[in-house]
Amino acid sequence: MLWNQLDEYQQKYLGEVRYTDFLLGKIFDELKKQGLFDNSWIVITSDHGELLETSHYYHHHFIAEKVYAHGETHYEKEIRVPWIIHPPKSFLNQIQKSEFSDQVSLLSLMPTLLGLNRISYPKDKLKGNDYSKAIFGEKGPESEPVIYTEGRFSESILTPDFKYIRRYPGYDLVRRTREGTSHKMPEELYDLIKDPMELENLANSNFELLGEARSILKENQLSKNSFFLRLPKCENVCEREVRFFSKGGIYRYDFTGNLKVLQEDSKNIVLKILNTSSHFDQVLEVKTIDPSPIFRLEILKNGILENYRIGKWGIRSDNSLEILRDEPEYVALDRFPYRYFSSEIPFLYYHTGFSGGKETEEEAAMGQEVRKILESWGYIHQ
Q: Is residue 19 part of a domain?
C-alpha cells in the first residue's frame, strides 16, 4: 500500500537505494573472498541526498526545471548524508565511541582517517576535525558548531539551532511552479528548534538572527579571488555610479560605505555610491566565482566618465585597452599594487592570493625597470 502512494520519482529513488545496497554487498563479498575485508578501512558516504518532498521543490526551478531536487538545495533531506567508517578487525578492541549524535561534516573525514591510522599531517593544511581521539576513548572533538555547505550557485551554514542559506547574485529567483511567476529569495533562515521541517523562512522577520547568521557565513565562506576598487574621498559632495562586469561571475560583493543597487545579475552590478563626501576612502570588493581577471568597468562621477588606475603599476584606464587586450592578467596581483593607497583617482586590481597571478622573484625584481619603461612611454603618470 505504501509503495502505491509514492510517485514515479520516489519509487525510482528507492529502487536506486536498493540497487546500491546490492552492489555494496557484492563489493564486500569480493573483499572477503580476497581476505581484505577484515584488513581494510571502508568508508561509505555520499555527495548529497535527494529532495523528494513537494514542500520545497519550488526552490530550484530556475536551474534544473525538475519536480524534485538533485544536489540543488540546502534542506536537510539533501545535505544530511551517510558518514560510516568500517574499521579493520584488529582495531575493534580499541574503539570506545562508535556513534556521533551531533553534527559533523565531510571535511572531517580526511583528518579522522589519518588520525585513526596514526599518520601525522600538517594541521593547518586540512580543515575539519580529527575524531579519532574520541573514537579511541581519548579527549577530543565530538561535533562541529558550524557546517558550511557549497551548492550550485548557493551556500549555507548549519548550526545546531538554525540554518542560513544564501544564493549568489543572479541566481536568487524562484517560483512555486514551473509556469509560476518568479520572485526573489536571496536568503533563507530557519529556526531548526521550532521549525525542523524548514517551512517558515525568517529572513524577512528575524533580523537579529539574520545578522548573526550572515556574520557566521562570512567567517566560514569560501576563499575567492577578489577585485578591489578603491574610491578616493571626495573633497566636496559627489556622487559616483559604478558599472562593473566580471567574466568569472560574482560570488558576493561588499562596500565600506553606503550604496544603492541599480542592477544586479550573475556577472554585472551597477551601483550608485551615495554621499561620497567623507574623510575616508571607500572600497568595493567583488569576489568572483571563477578565477578570471577579465572585467569591464565604468565609473561616472557626477555624471562624467572618471578615469581610474589598474593593475601592477597603476596604468590609467584611458591608456589600458591595448595592454588588457594582449595581457588580461595584467590587472591580477597577489599583493597591493604600486600607488594603490595614494592614487588621486580610483584604482582597481584583481587580488589573486588564492589562485593564480603570483609573481616569481624574478618578475618582482623586474618590476621597477618595467615601470620606468611604461613611464617613458607615457602609460604611467605621477
A: no
**209 & 282 share domain:** no
Does 28 map to a domain? no
Mean pLDDT on 209-217: 98
Model confidence at 348, pLDDT cuts 50, 70, 90, reads: very high
Which of 9-23, 73-87, 275-289, 367-381 has the lowest average pLDDT?
367-381
Last residue of a domain, one of 218, 235, 268: 218
- Give the structural domain span for 327: 226-376
Task: Indicate whether 8 belongs to any domain.
Answer: no
pTM: 0.85
Phi, psi of 212 (to 5 degrees): -65, -45
Residues 296 and 173 reside in one and the same domain: no
Q: Say yes or no: 180 and 110 in one domain.
A: yes
pLDDT category at 55 given cuts 50, 70, 90 is confident
Same domain, 150 and 297: no
Residue 3 binned pLDDT confidence (cut-offs 50, 70, 90): confident
pLDDT digits (tens, 9 = 90+) for 142-182: 999 999 999 878 999 999 999 999 999 998 888 766 666 77
Same domain, 190 and 276: no
- Structural domain count, the chain: 2
Does 4 reside within a domain? no
Which domain-ending residue is among 181, 201, 218? 218
Using alpha carbons, select from 249, 192, 199, 195 the residue that is nearest to residue 226: 249
> How far apart are alpha carbons 254 and 171 in whole angstroms?
18
- Is the pLDDT higher at 115 or at 236? 115
